[in-house]
Specification:
The protein has 644 residues and is mainly β. Among the domains are: 7-23 and 31-80, no CATH class; 81-106 and 543-644, Immunoglobulin-like; 108-176, Beta Barrel (Elongation Factor Tu (Ef-tu), domain 3). Helices cover 8% and strands 45% of the residues. It contains two helices and 50 strands.
Length: 644
């Protein structure tokens, strides 16, 4: 629950009365000493603080315990089924599966060149996760088959394998599993064409939040989203507080609220920015008063287990409008008016040291960014040249580098570097609204401007981001549209997608990408959060999908039983196959016996039983999803199993 009232803060500890006075109480006409009142008010404040703290802790623990309970219930469900065995495995499709001995293998890559029939070696984009003895599926939009990997060459990124029986296009997928897990559903994925951007946004999850949200950040381990919230958008006296939700970056689900509390005396009500330290133990918070005055920077502790934000400030910097940590987390860069200040930062304690370097800079229009190598600060500027680059060496900021040959037409609302820092994207407050420059992260030079896209946003954009090194998106909050474009070193291509976002409020104030997720936040009377997944490549739907689970039994085994719960449809089916072999042998699958039971009008459970003659240690379960039409969007919702 949200605490609306401010705590009656009273920090003078006073003097505790003797026990005799506590027993006797006040006497008529008595005038108690001021220190007794200080003691009483201080005790009231501390007790109320403890009650609020424990209430918030309890709420966070309940959510975490609920998820743990789901894991325990899965284990008990397996135990209650009348089949013995030495190990249990399950998948609740929520990214946890605490006690499961089986895990889905999502290893996936694509062939760099076409694959011919009878080919036995294929150069791929990435060999991570592949090993000799694995069965993998190779497919494009026409053909599909299973092959066995016999060797992996890390130097050439080549997979040696049993001979293919069919030919495949360049960028054919080679994978252990060809399914997608979203929203606690294992569903069909498809042929990922490998770099052909679509810019398609797919709505994943959302929240209805009845408070004003001004900032958000995802924890480094991607388990939590922390929001900076104000209780009432229209109330100038409204309090600021933090709210933490669970986040599953695999499925894209925003989960339960696990923490909420006021931001404390050293954080102002308007929380304009949140940045995590790399270790996830602290957050750096930017905040202001309701009128934007008295900006300050505060560091607070963060509990990576519960999602709790500390209320006691570790360090506070007054009158600093913008602030960011460098990538190494060794110093903090803050801006006060036209002075850029550099402070040493201790990532182990969250302490900001005394300023050790300053630099007079142009007045900033928005938050600066820093290159991945920590050598250059790039800042949007309030006035010509509108964009500026400053070198920084060991925390010392140098003179502004040369301006780009083509200046932006106005100050940009937002600037962003591509993942490899070879492009600089920005969204000016005047047409062309989206601009991209070539950028050299070694010299800090802003190079030539890419040609404008043929399709421009309808009006100014307030956010820009890179999906990849060759794909950029820009958010136009007047529509609200997300425009996505493919890039070359010379031009921004035509809009490959213009997605009208389902707005959570009258406008979206923020868009950012984490693992290709875009988070939109409403700030006016209709408030909320919408999370979308950005498709970075074209995905051609297929009629089949495969999921392979690597299972680690307690010793050797000769039998496996699995129960697969899935949505019911005449055009959708699940089949199982099992491989139980010696640890040094190639996987070898045999079909499992299947028995189906309808749990309801919309849900079916399939039981699969498989066994071998000789007990071995390496167990792999393969589930094959099939459908009659690509329009059949049914999915697996739960998997339970026992290894005999």
């Amino acid at each position: 629950m949200a605490f609306e009232e401010a705590l009656p803060e009273w920090n003078n500890a006073g003097t505790e009365p003797l026990q005799a006075k506590k027993d006797a109480g006040w006497e008529a006409t008595e005038k108690p000493p001021a220190d007794w009142f200080n003691w009483l008010f201080n005790r009231n404040y501390k007790c109320l603080s403890e009650i609020r703290q424990n209430a918030s802790d309890t709420e966070g623990r309940i959510s975490i315990h609920d998820r743990e309970l789901a894991n325990i219930e899965a284990v008990l469900d397996i135990d209650n089924r009348a089949i013995s065995g030495n190990s249990k495995f399950y998948d609740l499709l929520d990214g946890t599966n605490t006690y499961s001995t089986g895990k889905i293998d999502m290893t996936r890559t694509f062939a760099l060149n076409p694959i011919n029939a009878n080919q036995t070696s294929t150069v791929v984009d990435d060999i991570t996760g592949f090993a000799a003895g694995q069965e993998v599926t190779v497919f494009d939009d026409v053909n599909s088959e299973e092959i066995i990997v016999t060797a992996v060459n890390a130097g050439t990124k080549a997979l040696t394998h049993t001979a293919t029986t069919q030919s495949y296009k360049a960028h054919a997928n080679i994978c252990r599993s060809s399914v997608e897990i979203l929203g606690k559903r294992m569903r069909f994925d498809g042929w990922r064409t490998g770099g052909v951007g679509t810019g398609l946004l797919e709505y994943i999850s959302g929240l209805e939040i009845t408070h004003d949200i001004r900032s958000a950040a995802i924890s480094p381990d991607k388990k939590f989203i922390v929001f900076g919230v104000r209780t009432d958008y229209n109330d100038s006296t409204a309090l600021g507080f933090f709210r933490t939700y669970e986040f599953d970056h695999i499925t894209g689900q925003i989960g339960a609220k696990v923490w909420e509390d006021s931001c404390g005396a050293n954080v102002f009500p308007i929380i304009t920015g949140i940045q995590f330290t790399n270790n996830g133990n602290f957050i750096v918070v930017r905040s202001t008063l309701i009128n934007g005055g008295s900006p300050r920077v505060t560091t607070l502790a963060f509990d990576k287990v519960t999602g709790r934000v500390g209320t006691t400030a570790i360090s506070v910097l007054a009158n600093q409008t913008y602030a960011l940590l460098n990538n190494a987390n060794t110093y903090l860069i803050a801006v006060s008016s036209t002075t850029l200040n550099v402070f040493p930062f201790n990532a182990e304690t969250g302490v900001i040291g005394a300023v050790f370097a300053t630099k007079t800079v142009l007045r900033l229009y928005g938050s600066p960014i820093i290159t991945a190598n920590d050598n250059f600060i790039i800042a949007p500027v309030d006035g010509s040249p509108y964009i500026a680059v400053y070198p920084i060496t060991n925390g010392v900021v140098g003179d502004k580098l040369a301006d780009p040959a083509t200046l932006p037409p106005a100050a940009p609302y937002n600037v962003m570097l591509s993942p490899s820092n070879n492009f600089l994207g920005l969204v000016p407050a005047a047409s062309p609204y989206v601009m991209v420059y070539n950028f050299n992260p070694v010299t800090g030079a802003i190079g030539t401007k890419l040609n404008n896209p043929p399709t421009l946003p309808a009006s100014y954009c307030n956010a820009v981001g890179f999906v990849s090194d060759n794909c950029i998106w820009a958010f136009c909050n007047m529509t609200p549209f997300v425009y996505t474009y493919l890039l070359t070193t010379s031009a921004i291509g035509d809009a490959i997608n213009q997605t009208l976002i389902e707005s959570p409020g009258a406008a979206l104030s923020l868009g950012f990408v984490s693992d290709n997720y875009i988070l939109g936040i409403g700030t006016t009377s209709l408030l909320g959060v919408k999370l979308y997944k950005m498709r970075t490549e074209e995905v051609i739907p297929l009629l089949t999908g495969v999921a392979r689970y690597n299972i680690t039994p307690a010793g050797t085994t000769d039998e496996t039983v699995a129960w697969v719960e899935h949505e019911k449809d005449a055009g959708f089916a699940v089949d199982g196959a099992l491989s139980i072999v010696d640890t040094a042998a190639n996987e070898s699958y045999a079909a499992m016996t299947k028995t189906s039971t309808d749990l309801s009008a919309s849900v079916t459970e399939d039981q699969f039983i498989g066994d071998v003659v000789t007990a071995e240690e390496k167990v792999t379960l393969k589930l094959t999803l099939s459908r009659t039409l690509t329009s059949v969007d049914k999915a697996i919702t739960k998997i339970l199993g026992r290894v005999g």
